[in-house]
Structures are given as C-alpha cells and as structure tokens.
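Field reference: sequence -> structure
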Amino acid sequence: MSRKTASASAESGQKESDPADAGLENAEGKSAQGQAENALSESEEEAAGAGTEYRIVMVGDVLLHTPVEESCRKPDGSYDYDSLFTHTKDEISAADLALVNQEVIIGGSELGISGYPCFNADFSLCDTLVRTGFNVICHATNHAMDKGRAGLVSCAQHWKEQYPQVTILGIHDTPDTATSCGADPVIIDLPELRIAVLNYTYGTNGIALPKDMPYAVDLLNEEQVAADLCRAEELADFTIVCPHWGTEYRLIPDASQEKWVQVFLENGADLVLGTHPHVIEPVEWVTDPENGHEMLVYYSLGNFVNWTSGTGEGVANRMVGGMAEITIAKNEAGKAEISDYGVRPLVSHVTAGLGGVTTYFLEDYSKELEAANEITLQDPDFSLEYCINLCDSVWGELWRKNMPLE
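Structure field:
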C-alpha cells in the first residue's frame, strides 16, 4: 500500500478529478479517447481501470445502555432500533464498505434484554444494522461473552441464518471460521480490489471462553495476529485491522495501543480502525523505518450511540464519536492506496421516550438540539461548543472540511 496525503481537494470535501475526464467535454474529445482506448494493450487496460475508488466508513460503539434499549422498545414489547440511525443512514448506506463496532452481543430476547454491565440486544438490531447499510459487523469486544456461550452462539447463528451476505467478524460458533483454528482471514472482494479485515479484542471482561470453544472470540495475541496479517498480505490488496483496545475515557493512545500499532505496522497492515475507549482519540500516519511502509491509524472512534449512567466531568466526552471515511484505489502500478481520508464527528442525542435516542453528525447539530439533550442533566459541560472544542483538540483540522461555512 502506498499513501497519498489529504490534498487541497480532500480538504474541500471533493475527490481529485481523473485527468481523463477533461477529454470528455466535446464529441471530438470523446471520439479521440474512444480510438485511443481501442488501441490499448491488455496491460494498459488494466492500468486504465486502476483508478476506481472505493469508499469505506466505520463508526464506533453501538453501546446500548438501558435507556437506549427503552427508547427502542415499542408499546407491544418488541424492539425497533431504526431511530438510532435515522440521521446517519444515508451516509452509511452510500459506502462500498460500511463497518460498525457492535459493542454488545445480540443474543435475542429469550436471554433477556439488558444494559450495563452485562449487555444483550434483541435480534431486531440485526435487521436495523442491515437496513442502515452496514455490511461488516465487528463483534470482538469486551462484552462478547456477556451472555456466555448461549449469547455468543445465538448471535453468530442468527447472523448466518438470516443475513449470510453480511460479514461477521470477531466471534465464532464453530472453528471453521476462526484463524486460530487454521481458517484464512476474511477477504472481502470488491471489483478489482481484495480487502482483508481482521477484528480482535483485548479481553472479555474476565469472562472465560468456553473450554471447548477457545476460538469463540478473536483475542489480541501477538503470534496469532502476526500470522493472520502475513496470510492477509498473501491474499489481499489491502488489510484493515479493527482492534478493541486502549483505556476507557482516555483521549490519547496508551502504551498498549502504541505497542500494537508497531505489531500491525511491521506485519503489513494498511489501516487501523480502533474502538473501546468510549471517547475519540487522534488519527495519524505511522511509518515503518525498515521499509517505508505506511499505515493510517484511527486510535478510537468513540461511541456511536450511548446514554451512560455516569455523571459529572468527562461524561460529555462520551457523547462525541466519529465516522472514519477512507477512499481506497489502485494506483497506476496496481498497488492499493489511501487516496483520501477524514473523520466526521457524531453526537449522541438523548431524550426520554420512544425514539428519543439518536445520533447526529456534528455539522447538523444545533443549539436547539443541545438544549433538548438530557445528558446536560448528567454533565452540565455538554454543549455544541464543547463538542466542537473537543474535536479540535483531538483531531485538529482533519474533521473541519465537513463543517458548513459560517
């Protein structure tokens, strides 16, 4: 993978134009280009097709505290989670690859719907995630074992039976899909581009994996991760790692994250999309001094949605998340590269009542919404200005290309 830095066109929110487009402005140009294309050799045709761009997005933790679950519970007792994604669905569904960190296990109502500390969601959340446009679900989190074997198996089987077209990462009800049991990493085939996606968690909150299912959750194990990445390099054009790592509520990476960044980098990963701290953390490029290989790291995307029961200083930080936006294309040499990247801040908006919890892009958030957000009862520091200042502090200018002009 080679790197293109964010250019002036990226900063304005526009993609760089293909130089070939300039020749399409008149009939004479079209004719000339058509004749030239007919004369291309096979290798030149491949190079000409190398400019196809693919847009990847990922959001952070879908963290379903009890008030969030209650906002999605209909009068008849069934659940509908669509309201959580009402204001972000269009952007998510427009992506070629849309990933989400599914923080809580989706074990179904038979196991009891529950919030913190042992979460469990209704199967209808799967319906909502698919309707929203997510096609890659990251389940390797510290809450993967909250409902034990039954929850994990129920979740994995429901996905396979109802949505076999959706890629599920991080949990396994059988060994045949686990790299720790010899399976290959998941490869997603896009036209002319193969992407490997790996998902690991640092642990499962002290809940042991079943003795006969040591493969049930993909854990951050250096030997296994290195082997997976090496195999991914053989099979794919581009490799994404989605680690569940770091320290909760910390706005900068910790020593463990820095260690794992080096492991990922040295073994050829191209993009890291991190979760778990429940707050946003920086985005940066890192370079392997041995070979010049570059890797883009989003240390933490924070929460996509939450309504923590916490109070006081720092709670406002948990209400801001980010949507990673990355554009990938093959260059003229046929190597996959990041041609553009950015991050769009998100705000968890929480009010009591059916459908009262949802998430907005920060650029769409208003003073009126700020005044209605009930998180101000738990942390008076929360405000639109607070959210903007937090994004400036953590992401600098990277996020501002999506803000409306004043």
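Note: Residues 148-162 form the longest helix (15 residues).
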